[in-house]
Specification:
The protein is an alpha/beta fold. It has helices spanning 40-58, 62-78, 80-91, 95-112, 115-118, 154-165, 179-191, 206-214, 227-239, 262-274, 292-307, 327-342, 378-381, 397-406, 420-429, 465-471; strands spanning 2-4, 6-8, 11-13, 19-24, 31-37, 122-128, 131-139, 142-146, 169-173, 199-201, 218-224, 243-247, 252-256, 284-289, 346-349, 368-371, 388-391, 409-410, 412-416, 434-437, 453-454, 457-458, 473-481. The chain has two domains: 2-248 and 456-478, Aldehyde Dehydrogenase, Chain A, domain 1 (3-Layer(aba) Sandwich), CATH 3.40.605; 252-437, Aldehyde Dehydrogenase, Chain A, domain 2 (3-Layer(aba) Sandwich). It is 39% helix and 22% strand. The strands form six sheets. Strands 15-16-17-14-13-19-20 form a seven-stranded mixed beta sheet, with helices on both faces. Strands 10-9-8-11-12-22 form a six-stranded mixed beta sheet, sandwiched between helices. It has a three-stranded mixed beta sheet with strand order 1-5-4, with helices on one face. Helix 7 links the parallel strand 9 (169-173) and strand 10. It is globular and about 85 Å long.
């Protein structure tokens, strides 16, 4: 049995808790590893190692820090298949989907490689008599990231490269369900030349999270996960005086106007709704066709596609969708499907009870399609995080827009249309952080920033891209005057420039 340890100050350690937790292969249900679970003692050790490493790393030139990112990019490109296999084994997503995760992570590594340009300051000469002003961005110190199971490589690599490139030291607390992926990330950084102590990995649950929040040497926390935990980390982290960005849950809608290409919209919904078994915060889980004819045409196109979904393990290259993460997740998703049917939704394709020959103990849920869903149904109001697509029919474009704007979540949304006026109006009016026009999953490229609105995000900072530079640094402004031999006398008024 593989044992997955913490990595503190460049060394593997089991810590002092003595607690372990199993890691399962979702496709088979078998235990494939044990991960050591840490708490306050392990966070303390990681924070001390990080604090010791900060002076040297923060004084390393941005160009040399960028060189580590250049090396990391090359190593990740060469080992992409290995990284993807590790992801799939722990998460269950298909190999191609895992390769896509690696590719999106690489975008952020590439952006971090250009950090010397991003950290340039400003300078103004002669803002007053013999007075110059300059500004620069300096690292915060020790920062931490708490990451989810569904993207065990991509989300940590949305955080770590930018934090390190800005001169910070990083403590990663990954999901215990993605422990091997997290430790592999460390090995990749080590191979790229990262010094000991600059990146530390501590596995654990709530005890480790609370220790991160409470530790006085940790200056900032980045989090991606569910909204209740995002709210908890944000409120408690801010109360502890830390800078916090906490990205939460989602309920993403896609409006389909009558002029849209229905076949294109159906293709988009299949990928966005059922890719990664729906375990994405940017998954489209609600289709909103405008008009009965549009809805009927869309549903008619979707039914055979959902029924024909090729569900299987990541080792099968024909698989289009894998299992969900745990047996508990399977039961919760199937229970929500049952609730939706009881509340009046029309069950067009039922994914409950799906079995795969040879993988009977895996955590499988088949693709599910619900029609005539309404706003008051739990299946609409709650994030399902599974392969369930709901169709909520709308009489008008304005109602569809208001529907989205009323929802508590505001992560991502999409509009499918051929009408440029409607697209422009939608992008302006919709109260959602990431918008796609004929693009179902509008995750920004690595040189823009990712972030939702409303209950999908807390803290006001997007993750990666330009927003990350501001989150992981603080502004310092220096105003200077050198003696000229001329005394200006004592001034008791507020200083004036110019």
């Amino acid at each position: 049995m593989t044992l997955i340890d913490h990595i503190i100050d460049g060394k593997n350690t089991s810590g002092s808790s003595g607690k372990k937790q199993p890691v399962y292969n979702p496709a088979t249900g078998e235990e494939i590893a044990q991960v050591t679970m840490g708490g306050a003692a392990e966070i303390e050790a990681a924070a001390q190692a990080a604090k010791n490493a900060f002076p040297d790393w923060s004084n390393t030139s941005p160009a040399k820090r960028a060189n580590v990112m250049y090396s990391l990019r090359q190593i990740m490109s060469q080992r992409a298949d290995e990284i993807a296999r590790t992801i799939s084994r722990e998460h269950g997503k298909t190999h191609d989907d895992a390769l896509g995760e690696v590719a999106r992570a690489l975008e952020v590594v590439e952006y971090a490689s250009g950090i010397p340009d991003k950290l340039k300051g400003d300078f103004s000469r002669d803002v007053g008599p013999g007075i110059d002003t300059s500004s620069e961005r300096q690292p915060l110190g020790v920062v931490a990231g708490i990451t989810p199971f569904n993207f065990p490589s991509m989300v940590p690599l949305w955080m770590i490269p930018m934090a390190l490139a800005c001169g910070n030291i990083f403590i990663l607390k990954p999901s215990e369900r993605g422990a091997a992926s997290a430790n592999l990330i460390f090995e990749l950084f080590k191979e790229a030349g990262l010094p000991p102590g600059v990146l530390n990995v501590v596995h654990g649950g709530k005890n480790a999270v609370d220790a991160i929040i409470a530790h006085p040497d940790i200056q900032a926390i980045s989090f991606v996960g569910s909204t209740p935990i995002a709210r908890y980390i944000y409120s408690n982290g801010c109360a502890a005086g830390k800078r916090v960005q906490a990205l939460g849950g989602a309920k993403n809608h896609m409006i389909i106007l009558p002029d849209a290409d229905i076949d294109q919209a159906a293709d988009a919904l299949m990928g966005a709704g059922f890719g990664s078994a729906g375990e994405r915060c940017m998954a489209i889980s609600v289709a909103v066709p405008v008009g009965e004819e549009t809805a009927n045409r869309l549903v008619e196109a979707l039914i055979p596609m959902v029924q024909a979904l090729k569900i299987g393990p990541s080792t099968d290259p024909e698989s289009e969708m894998g299992p969900v993460i745990t047996g508990e997740a399977k039961m919760r998703i199937e229970s929500m499907i049952t609730d939706g049917e009881k509340e009046g939704a029309k069950l067009l394709v039922d994914g409950r009870g799906f079995k795969l020959q040879g993988y009977e103990n895996g955590f499988w849920v088949g693709g599910t399609l619900l029609d005539h869903v309404t706003e008051d149904m739990s299946v609409y109001k709650q994030e399902i995080f599974g392969p369930v697509l709901s169709v909520l029919r709308s009489d008008s474009y304005d109602y569809a827009v208001d529907l989205i704007n009323r929802h508590q979540y505001g992560n991502g949304t999409a509009l499918f249309t051929r009408d440029g006026d409607a697209a422009r109006d939608f992008a302006r009016r919709i109260n959602v952080g990431m918008v796609g026009i004929n693009v179902p999953i509008p995750v920004p490229v690595g040189y823009h920033s990712f972030g939702g609105w409303k209950q999908s995000s807390f803290g006001g900072h997007g993750i990666y891209g330009p927003e990350a530079v501001h989150f992981y640094t603080r502004l310092k402004t220096v105003t200077s005057r050198w003696p000229t031999g001329i005394r200006s006398g004592v001034e008791f008024t507020f200083p004036k420039m110019g």
